[in-house]
Amino acid sequence: MKTFLHHKLRINLIQQLELCRPSSVLLAFSGGQDSLCLLKLCIDMQNKYNFNIGIVHIDHQLRKDATINTNHIINIIKALQIKSYIYQIKDSSYSEQTCRDTRYQIILQTARIHGYKYIATAHSASDRIETFIYNLTRGSSMDGLNSIIWSRNINCNMKLIRPILNFTRQEIGWFCRYFALPVWSDYSNINYQHSRNRIRQELIPYLKKYLNKDAEKHITTCLELLYMDSEYIRQNTIKIYQHVKHPVFIAINHPHLLNQHYSIQIRVLRLFFKHNLNIYTSHILLKKIILNMQKDTKEEIAHNSIIIRYNKTWLYVS
């Protein structure tokens, strides 16, 4: 039986993700309502669109019920007879960020080894809004505020997609109840020591009750507009970077770069260090570099293991 969310997903695949017929999809699966919803939708559409589905689950064994959760997922997989890849990691000293990075690398490696063209995650509109508010309180940039987007190219053969990014948590909850899906409840989601949980359980309901009942909808619209502006600036940043970079050496034509808007200068420099040296540069460092570029007598800037130097035309690294 098809629902309005089946129709919504088909529209997303065509309009947002430009996927008329996805060939093979590896679904990052936790057993929670979001990933179960996406899995059910994909299975229902599998016969019509004729694509392969795989499931990958990483168990960091950080929660007391982690093993039970994994066994629950195995039972789901057995019933559905879907290709699956389950990993268990036993180092309890991992931080949340380290776990996230490790999980990402394992998923990429699994997709690459088994030939999946798309990696699908079950991020929803609610996840997107919570991340936006969380990053806003941390003073993130435009790109950071809208870090959860519809898709991202991993390489020329693989793409990360988020097919249900405009599904709300209420819609997903209804879907799971309607089809009686065996949702695993993660008790850590009600732990208010995690800022995201407090945003989800307290701040967003407060905004909807006292400011605007359609607050989530309007924030989502704002994020879509923000993404279009950010994408336009990103494309221009790449064009200008190609224009000011040295054709052979790791260097940038700083007089040409100074002719650009400050926002572009920051972005080009950040791209320069990321592309050539794979290092993160803070806004404070980038601002210092730009101020130094504007001086008649330029000073060397030491940063970690590199030294940023200047001559009359070029900024270079040694």
Automatic annotation (TrEMBL):
Protein name stated in the entry: tRNA(Ile)-lysidine synthase, chloroplastic
A Pfam family reported for this protein in Swiss-Prot or TrEMBL: ATP_bind_3
TM stretches of this protein: none
Protein's organism: Scinaia undulata
Domain notes: The N-terminal region contains the highly conserved SGGXDS motif, predicted to be a P-loop motif involved in ATP binding.
InterPro entries in the record: Rossmann-like_a/b/a_fold, TilS/TtcA_N, tRNA_Ile_lys_synt, tRNA_Ile_lys_synt_N
tRNA(Ile)-lysidine/2-thiocytidine synthase N-terminal domain boundaries: 25-202
Gene Ontology biological process terms, A to Z: tRNA modification
The gene coding this protein: tilS
Function: Ligates lysine onto the cytidine present at position 34 of the AUA codon-specific tRNA(Ile) that contains the anticodon CAU, in an ATP-dependent manner. Cytidine is converted to lysidine, thus changing the amino acid specificity of the tRNA from methionine to isoleucine.
Subcellular locations according to the entry: Plastid, Chloroplast
Keywords linked to the UniProt accession: ATP-binding, Chloroplast, Ligase, Nucleotide-binding, Plastid, tRNA processing
